[in-house]
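User: Can you write out an input/output pair for a complex, sequences first and structure second?

Assistant: Here is one pair. Inputs:
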Amino acid sequence: MPAVPTPLAMIAELTHRCPLHCVYCSNPLEMTRRETELSTAAWTAVLRQAGELGVLQVDFTGGEPLARRDLPELVRVARGAGLYASLITSGLPLDEERLEELVRAGLDHLQLSFQDAHEESANEFAGAQAHAQKLRVAEWVKRHRIALTLNFVIHRRNLDQLEEMLALTQQISPARVEFAHVQYYGWAFANRDLLLPTRQQLDRSLEILKQAEETLRGRIRVEYVVPDYYAKYPKACMGGWGRKVLLITPTGEVLPCHAAKIIPGLNFENVQSQPLRKIWEESDAFQKFRGEGWMPEPCRSCDRRAQDFGGCRCQALLLTGNAAATDPVCTLSPERNVVDAILTEANRTTAAASPTKPEWLYRINP
Amino acid sequence: MAPELTSRPRLAPGCRMSEKSQQPRVLLMPERALRLNGPSLEIVERCDGRHTVQQIIAELQELYSKADPGKVEQDILGYLNLLREERALDFE
């Protein structure tokens, strides 16, 4: 067996509680209640173990991580453990005082999510009155010496407003902006027919983003990827299973990615019963798809296997029923026809001809 | 675009080096960590808002006195520009 790599980043899902109800939330459909969340002491132990394991960065996320009153304490512990501390937030439960407290605790970076450039549609996708507050938060953050990333979640219903999103980005002028296509897991999978863009929308958006990347070079780092249903090869999901990233759920289970719990037959260990290092290096769930031993053809003999690691296990499960199959978005996959059929359906009508009052399935609050 | 020789590079907000106790040293920034080897560590340590680009070049030319000074200058300008595009540096 080759040596187990060192994880670089830890995603700390502090809670599933959230004031937003985004139609594409990456949280699982079944959520954890407040009573079962890890305590401050338990998170403290996890953060210290992560530092010892060699993790460099921790992303505090949720749900809305600000729903935890102990967040500044956890940031302080993370910094003490040598970690780079990022907060992934809607910005909703934030005020200037709380932000200052987080900065004093050592917060390095705040990533603020945006649902659109326009208030009305942004609030529709979020299922909450959120947009105006986000604009205030962006201004507050810029008064501190921490990094700011704007994250626009893009899809069929807002992709035609990309230029307005870029205008808003330039107005706020963060160091970094991400245009993140919705990934079809969890709530987004349930709303996929309403969210999947057309090829025409996608091609135009890629032109706009490529140009923005050039225009803003050196001022704002623009990041985006081709959504994988439209890609020729799959994404290197999480940089490879059990290779770079681990995720801790609100109750302390350790997962290789956000969605892994949907895969049947995997047992996830909990940080309250085993050391983090042992779970990362030895647990069945991490070993199951680590490396290349699990790969079927055409991955097993593919030149790209060390680049994309066979793609995404959760996507393989969702689209083919088999988590150990080649990710069917790959054009070399024998089951690519499943994805093509979905794309044909998505391109049957234009985005503009879509219903004006769609029947969203909104994320619930636990 | 090469940085001005008289400007003073400084790590941008939210960009910092890992602690000295952590080896190898890395430059930490949002969603990224760049490994710092000998020369890149020497450069980043001088991006403190006090050294000018010109001073950084002079100090590294002295430090790497066996290397071709012109090549050292080009390498430094290239590396500073890369960090600028990563938004890891501000030039004051």
